[in-house]
């Protein structure tokens, strides 16, 4: 029996290549409410890349305990940072994508930029469906994480591969693994700090706080820890700092296991107790401000430092949509698109029937 002709849109044969960049961030709840946060956490914490303990045990703990308790606590935190436009993580990611789009357009390059979230909305699958329906045949996946971690970067890739499982005609994908030492990223960070210091002067200590991961992942070969230290060293060098003027810490510990140390908040308290009166803190691993920077650092950690005797604490915002960072994203994308044509594609109809497909195919 002949298979039915049921082409997926678009029918790729003879199709003019069209290129897109998909900027993928972690994701955030749709609203700062308990049900929305529960939905988000269920998807996020249900990912085996994020919590690597045996499935059945973890599912029992997650659904039996964590999703009953944590959503209310987290929703209250989200409420303190929520803006009129929505969750900061999503607002900044959206702005980054729009700004990057503007750079491609200003250069006359026919590249479309979209963003997607690994957990929550818009999902990676929904954005890939849309790109495919619009005829995009080349997609560069850019995770919002400069440092590679199995818990984040690999999970974004998983979502793309998973989407591919249900498609016959796949676009040509490229993936950026990491850019923790890319000069444009380091320069954008350095500029962020210098701009802050131009107004406020220099602190006694610059703390570079990265999101933590379980220490076990380091022993299992995850390069995240090393990449954080390399970013910190390069940023310190770019700023002309000696090794005593900055330090690396890890924040956002989850659960009881040992995570990467030193932990951010206890370090800030120790610094205050040692008589360090002014600390500036930057979170180089987060490209967009979010709950972890705006609430955990700018509110909670600051309060802990001041309470322990510190006098001045400045949180230096993330790269967000700073012009230097958007230019950096452009350079990074271009490098990874090497060989892909950048000219505007000819308008070419997509086949919607077998007859049309054969006609188009014959022309090419
Ligand atoms: C449970 C384990 C977690 C791992 C491992 C983890 C790694 C990790 N996360 C980020 C970036 C972000 N995490 C954010 C929030 C967040 N992270 C965890 C847990 C783990 N993260 C939780 C449960 C939450 C949700 C908030 C809460 O309930 O505490 C965010 C902010 C999201 C937002 O909506 O603003 C980011 C960004 C990285 C980079 C990383 C590993 C390197
Ligand atoms: Fe996290
Ligand atoms: Fe947190």
TrEMBL record:
The lineage of its organism: Bacteria, Pseudomonadati, Pseudomonadota, Betaproteobacteria, Burkholderiales. The keyword Metal-binding applies. Pathway: Porphyrin-containing compound metabolism; protoheme biosynthesis; protoheme from protoporphyrin-IX: step 1/1. This is Ferrochelatase. Fe(2+) binds at residues 211, 292. It comes from Limnohabitans curvus. The gene is hemH. CDD domains: Ferrochelatase_C, Ferrochelatase_N. One of its GO terms (biological process) is heme biosynthetic process. GO terms for cellular component: cytoplasm. Belongs to the ferrochelatase family. Gene3D superfamilies: 3.40.50.1400.
């Amino acid at each position: 029996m002949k298979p039915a002709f049921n082409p997926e849109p678009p029918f790729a044969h003879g199709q003019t290549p069209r290129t897109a960049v998909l900027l993928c961030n972690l994701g955030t709840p749709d609203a700062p409410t308990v049900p929305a946060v529960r939905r988000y956490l269920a998807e996020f914490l249900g990912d085996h890349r994020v919590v690597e303990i045996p499935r059945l045990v973890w599912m029992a703990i997650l659904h039996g305990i964590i999703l009953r308790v944590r959503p209310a606590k987290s929703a209250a935190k989200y409420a303190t940072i929520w803006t009129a436009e929505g969750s900061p993580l999503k607002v900044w990611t959206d702005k980054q994508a729009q700004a990057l789009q503007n750079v491609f357009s200003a250069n006359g390059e026919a590249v479309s930029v979209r963003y997607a979230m690994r957990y929550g909305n818009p999902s990676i699958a929904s954005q890939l469906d849309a790109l495919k329906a619009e005829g995009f045949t080349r997609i560069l996946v850019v995770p919002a994480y400069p440092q590679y971690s199995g818990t984040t970067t690999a999970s974004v890739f998983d979502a793309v591969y998973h989407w591919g499982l249900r498609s016959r005609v796949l676009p040509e994908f490229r993936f950026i693994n990491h850019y923790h030492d890319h000069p444009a990223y380091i320069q954008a960070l350095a500029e962020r700090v210098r701009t802050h210091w131009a107004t406020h002067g220099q602190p006694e200590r610059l703390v570079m706080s990265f999101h933590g991961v379980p220490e076990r992942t380091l022993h299992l070969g995850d390069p995240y820890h090393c990449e954080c230290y390399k970013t910190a060293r390069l940023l310190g060098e770019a700023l002309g700092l000696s090794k005593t003027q900055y330090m690396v810490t890890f924040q956002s510990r989850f659960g009881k296991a040992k995570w990467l140390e030193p932990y951010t908040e206890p370090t800030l308290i120790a610094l205050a107790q040692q008589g360090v009166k002014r600390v500036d803190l930057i979170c180089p691993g987060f490209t967009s401000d979010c709950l972890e920077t705006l609430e955990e650092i700018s509110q909670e950690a600051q309060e802990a430092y001041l309470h322990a005797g510190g006098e001045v604490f400045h949180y230096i915002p993330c790269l967000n949509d700073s012009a230097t960072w958007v230019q950096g994203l452009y350079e990074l994308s271009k490098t990874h698109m090497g060989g892909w044509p950048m000219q505007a594609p000819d308008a070419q109809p997509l086949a919607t029937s077998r007859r049309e497909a054969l006609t188009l195919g014959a022309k090419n």
